[in-house]
Amino acid sequence: MAATRKPATQQETTRQLRGVNRRSLLKFAGLAGAGLIASPALIRSAHAATVVKIGSIQSLTGPGAPPGVSARNGSVFAVQEIAKAGGFKDSAGKDYTVELISNDMVSDPRQAILMFRQYAADPAVVASIGPTTSLGFVPLVPVAQQLSLPIISNGSGAPIREWNPWAYRINPVVKTATPIMLKTMIAAEKIKRLAVLYESTHDLQKADAEICREQAGPLGYSLVAYEAFRANDQDYSAQIATIKQNKPDALFVGAQQGQVGAVVAQVRSAGLDVPVVCGFGAMTYKSVWESSNGGIKGGYTWISVDVDSAEGKLKDWLDNYNKAFPVAAQSESIFGYDSVYAVVECVKRTNSTDRAKIKDVLASFKFTSPLGTNVDFQNPPDGDNRKPTVVIVRATGPGKYEVVK
After folding, report:
1. H or E element that contains 340
2. pLDDT tens digits, one per residue of 175-202
3. SS3 331
4. In sequence order, what are the residues at sequence separation of 6 or more whose Cβ sits closer than 8 angstroms to the Cβ of residue 341?
5. Which of 5, 44, 144, 210 is the most buried (most CB within 10 A)?
6. pLDDT digits (tens, 9 = 90+) for 84-94
7. pLDDT band at 10, cuts 50/70/90?
8. How far apart, in Å, do the first and last CA atoms of the chain sit?
9. How many domains does one find in the chain?
10. DSSP structural state of residue 148
C-alpha cells in the first residue's frame, strides 16, 4: 500500500497561484522570499553568463490546473537547482544561467498560442516547455514550426496528426499507455462489458475513448455504451441513464482531472457501482477523490513514475521538492523538471542558444536526466519519447493508490 500523498485541492491550488506575476515566474515573491528561487539579478551576475530563457505555458487555473501546477513547479525546481549550482557550462566551457518565464493559458488554446508567439518574439527565449494539457499542446505543434521555436510538452498525450521537427513530448502518451491500462484492468476485474463516458471537446479524451473502441476485439470485451459530453457540462444524468440501462461491468471516464470527480460523483449517485477506469493520473489526486465523494475508490489509472515508492536519488529529490512546494510531487512535476534539463543539455551540446541548432539536436536525442529518466527522440517520424515508463495503479484513498502493474 502506498504512503499518503498531499496533492492540493482546487482551492489550495488557487491560493498558491495568487500573487504570481504572469510575465515571469522568477518574480514569484513568495518562493523567492523563501530562498527557493534565485533572483534574476543574482543569476545574471555570475561571470556575465549568457542567460538561457525558457518559456513555460501551463493551465494554472481551470480544469487542467492540477497537472499544470505540478509541471510548472517541477520546472521551477530545476531552475532553482541550476541557480544554486552557479549555472552550467557548455562543452566549450562557456557559462550559462537559466531564466524561466511562466504564463497561465487558463485552459484556453487561444491563450496558449498567444503566449507562444510572445516567447517566439523574444530572441533570448531558446525553447518553450508545456503545456501538460493536449488542449494547449496540439494547436501549438504547427505554430512551433511556423515560428521556428522548439516546444517540449510535459504531459500531453493526444494524437498528433502531423508532426514536425520543432515539437516534442517528454512524457508517455495514450497510444502507448491506455492499451496497457485496459489490458490490466480487464484481466484484474474480469470485465466483459465496458461503457465509455467521455468529453468530446478535448483531443486527449476523444483519443482515449477511441482506444477503448479499438481494443474491444483484441481484449475480448463488448463496448455496450459510448456516451459523450462537452467540457462545460455539469449534468451527465442523461448519458449515465443510458449507460446504466446497458449494464456494464466497468466504466471508462474520459475527462480532465478537474472534471473526473464530478462525473464519478454523479455516476455513483445514479447507483452505478462498477469499477471506473480513467486516463493519465486522475485517480491519484486527493482533489479528485474528494470531488467524487470517494467514488473513485478502486478506480484504475496510469502514471509514469510511482513517486510513493521511490528510492535512492529520486526519493531524495522528492523529499526536497515536497519541502519546497505545498503541492506534493506528481509525475508531471518530474516531466516539468526533466523538460528544463533537456533544453539545458541541448545548449551544452550545441555550445549556443541558437533555436535551429537546438531543434536539430532534439531530432535525434538520447538523454538521461539527473533523475534517471530516459529521453529518446527520433523525429521524424514523430516527437514522442520512445522509452517511456508506464505504471498501472488503483485508487485506495484520498491521494493514495496501490500499484497493480
Report:
1. helix 331-350
2. 889 999 999 999 999 999 999 999 998 8
3. helix
4. 78, 367, 369, 370
5. 144
6. 999 999 999 99
7. very low
8. 13
9. 2
10. T
Give the burial class of 46: count Cβ atoms within 10 A of its Cβ; 0-12 exposed, 13-18 middle, 19 or more buried. Answer: middle
Residues 264 and 237 in one domain: yes
Residues 272, 363 within the same domain: no
How many residues are present in the chain?
405
Produce one character per residue of 319-347: b if its CB has 16 or more CB atoms within 10 Å, e if not. eebbebbebbbbbbbbbbbbbbbbbbbbb
Cα separation, 275 vs 280, in Å, equals 16
Residue 158 and residue 95 share a domain: yes
Partner residues linked to 226 by β-bridges = 196
Does residue 144 sit in the same domain as residue 211?
no
Alpha helices, DSSP H, located in 85-150: 109-121, 134-147
Q: What angle do CA 342, 348, 350 make, to 5 degrees?
A: 105
Query: Is the Cα torsion angle 404, 296, 7, 26 positive or negative in sign?
Result: positive
pLDDT at res. 261: 94
Domain CATH number, residue 217: 3.40.50.2300
> Which range of residues forms the domain containing residue 158?
10-171+311-378
